Amino acid sequence: MDFSLTEEQEMFRGHIRKMLDKFGGTQIAREMIDDNPQSLKKVYTTLAELGCSGINIPEEYGGMDLEALDLVPTFEEMGRSLVPGLFMETSALAVPTLKKYATEEQKQHNLPAIASGEKWISFAALEPFNDFSPAGIHCTLVQQDGQYVLNGTKTLVPEAELADAFLVLVRTNEEDQEDGLSLVLIDQTEDMKIEKQSSFDESKHVSKVEFQNFIIEENQIIGELDKGWTQLQEGLLYFNAALSSYIVGAMEQVVQMANEYAKIREQFGQAIGRFQAIKHSIVNMKVNLEIARSLSHYANWVVDTDESDREATVYSARTYATEKFIEVSAHNIQIHGGIGFTEEIDCHLYVKRARYYDQYVGSTPFYQEKVVASLGW
Amino acid sequence: MDFSFTKKEEKFRTELRTWLEANLPEGWLEGKRDLPEDLDEYSRVLRAWQHTLYEGGWAAIAWPKEYGGRGASLMEEIIYHQEMVRVKAPPLINYIGIHMVGPTLIDIGTDEQKERYLKKILTGEEIWCQGYSEPGAGSDLTGLKTRAVKDGDHWLINGQKVWTSFGHVADKCFLLTRTSTHPEKKHRGITVFMMDMHQPGVETLPIVQMDGHSEFNEVYMTDAVATDADIVGQVDSGWHVLIALMLHERTGIGAELFTLEKQFNDTVELAQQYKVNGKPLIENPAIRQKLASFYARVRGSLLNYYKNLTTTIKNGQPGAETSIDKLVVTELNQALSAFAVEIQGHQGVLVDKDAVADPKWQHLFLASFGQTIGGGTSEVQRNTIGERVLGLPKDMGR
Ligand SMILES: Cc1cc2nc3c(=O)[nH]c(=O)nc-3n(C[C@H](O)[C@H](O)[C@H](O)COP(=O)(O)OP(=O)(O)OC[C@H]3O[C@@H](n4cnc5c(N)ncnc54)[C@H](O)[C@@H]3O)c2cc1C
Known about the structure:
The complex is a heterodimer of chains A (377) and B (398). With 377 residues, chain A is an alpha+beta fold. Chain A contains 11 helices and 10 strands. In chain A, the strands form 3 sheets. In chain A, strands 1-4-5-8 form a 4-stranded mixed β-sheet, with helices on one face. In chain A, strands 2-3-7-6 form a 4-stranded antiparallel β-sheet, with no helix packed on it. A two-stranded antiparallel sheet of chain A has the order 9-10. Chain A is globular, with a radius of gyration of 21 Å. Chain B is an alpha+beta fold. In chain B, the strands form 3 sheets. In chain B, strands 1-4-5-8 form a 4-stranded mixed β-sheet. In chain B, strands 2-3-7-6 form a 4-stranded antiparallel β-sheet, with no helix packed on it. A two-stranded antiparallel ribbon of chain B has the order 9-10. In chain B, a hairpin with a 2-residue loop joins strand 9 (275-276) and strand 10 (279-280). In chain B, helix 4 packs antiparallel against helix 5 (111-123), helix 7 (252-273) runs antiparallel to helix 8 and helix 7 packs parallel to helix 9 (322-342). The radius of gyration of chain B is 22 Å and the shape is globular. Chain B starts with 6 loop residues before the first helix and ends in a 9-residue tail after the last helix. Chains A and B meet through helix 7, strand 10, helix 8, helix 9 and helix 11 of A and helix 7, helix 8, helix 9 and helix 11 of B. The complex binds flavin-adenine dinucleotide. Flavin-adenine dinucleotide binds at residues 129-133, 138-139, 163-165, 216, 370, 373-374, 376-377, 379-380, 383, 395 of chain B.
């Protein structure tokens, strides 16, 4: 029994951290607020050079053929600095989905490009006034004269302006409300209508993407037609395990910020960390962080095994992480006092990201229901 | 990452399982698990169980072989706890003797003390209690007032202890006393005695707990007697003895976590059986969400315990993170048992034979309030984590 990451995995973390520190940590996210993605693009390139983008891609497609757990240090470190971008959508959603369901031709077209860092994939699922569920998907893909025509609007598509391709969830069958959906992979083209949306997490760009009589080819459909939702669940396991890691990294930074500040900030002639109201609040944050980390490490291990609690653990990790991320990042502001409420200090960046991820590709009740269902209660 | 057990560990599990199946009290595995209400009877039954464990070689598996243990590894201890929880084994009446006093004596006791006490701990012949807390010394044990004064060739002990678990059945007490009148530091001048509970100057009065039971007691000492041979470690160095003792609490929290996991599964079952408006509660989305949330917390706590265990195995000794485990398991236990009572609606207040579901829920709910206090309150655990894990400054006055 050994419940820890290996020395190599921890060493790898060291490289990623050093690299992100060189970029100034949250500076990468802050530049996105100013609509300047230059650092982010360089980070992508460096991550690819370090091999991160090929970690879970088979060797025959230019990757390292490792497991989800080997991506954990990268995700945790990215979360620590709130690095935006499409690394998670690409490596933890598109890659597992492609590996499992894509045709050989589709794999050849995508996996080597992803491994080398030339291709980043965004995920377009949500639609205006709808939730993330089969009934919420109305973008239609219909067959016309041997071609497929796509119509509809996707909202909150992450970093659309930087995406080389989009994994899009579309309705292909009106009859089948449980599924009847399909996954299509669309390379970004000039004639796509992308419009940036304003959100309070300005360091994470989101866009509206409109498809009007947009033509796609049959070979852009991933996996089986009308079975997109079912297939997506497999990808979501990997994605949510990864998301929990990213959040653990972010929480770790939040706890560290609060802890360091409580040691140096003085009031009434003593460090505020001496006051139990503050001390215990930070301890609660730390406890939440450690539980989230344990759940998330296990989740990333279990996705690649066939343990019976695979789904339950992954979705528990996700819901626990998203809920506690909101809580700890809020406490962090309180502990910082007035300066915590300013733009200058990083506290607010974490609160905003916490809220963003809480609802991203499914809410807490959505995943809690999946936990219950997977356990057969 | 490796969650598998070695062949040797699996063999150990099978061996224990087979032994338990053959040796548990009659009818126990089939669900006949009532323990006698009468105190003497209760104590007799549990001492007998302790003796059965001893005879099978299962009384103190972590002790070195030469002292009657099995020299069990940390993982074997974990397996031991898992199996005991699985069969809902009878409570260990000599918990304090087996898990605390014995290992401490093995560590720092004299040869005579080992000879005199260890075997009787194993067999259940001598049951131990811990006399630390006093009316004015709880979280801050250095406030203790019980005095031991040298009088010729023996010591006279006077004072009062409180909340002494097992005091009513104990033969021996691991007793914290003040021996120096002018301690320059509060931690100095404390001495640990192994006190005989059956002597004239010692009186034990049960305290009725909020759950109606009396598992802890007041202990009054009036010119109680002890000798130099009863001192653990050195005179005035009782604080070090306490610290040595605490290091032996290697896996106890694990046992509580496995029990918690079991209780969580029972809660799910309860929600499946209990009906509201004709429908099983589990079909109610709010209940499902809460159960899912508990599932995450219970799993997370257990996994976190494994993570800390891995660190302990690697470093050879537990770190301050183990306070996280104690804090989490007790608070979660409180929340979970409250939930199990709450979902029974108004009928949740019914107890014992009138309880609508398994009456253990009402008992667990009430008992859970002792868990977040005993063994160091949640607040004190938070101080420990804040100061020793996070490096925050100590409270004023400490
Ligand atoms: C079920 C049970 C079994 C027990 N068994 C034994 C036993 O076998 N032997 C034995 O010696 N004792 C035993 N105890 C006693 C137990 O160790 C004490 O009750 C405990 O340490 C708290 O001490 P106290 O009751 O004096 O509370 P106090 O120390 O007076 O605490 C009262 C409140 O003040 C808070 N507080 C105290 N100090 C601080 C601080 N520095 N910072 C923040 N908050 C603080 C506490 O958290 C608590 O909320 C047992 C208690 C229980 C409930």
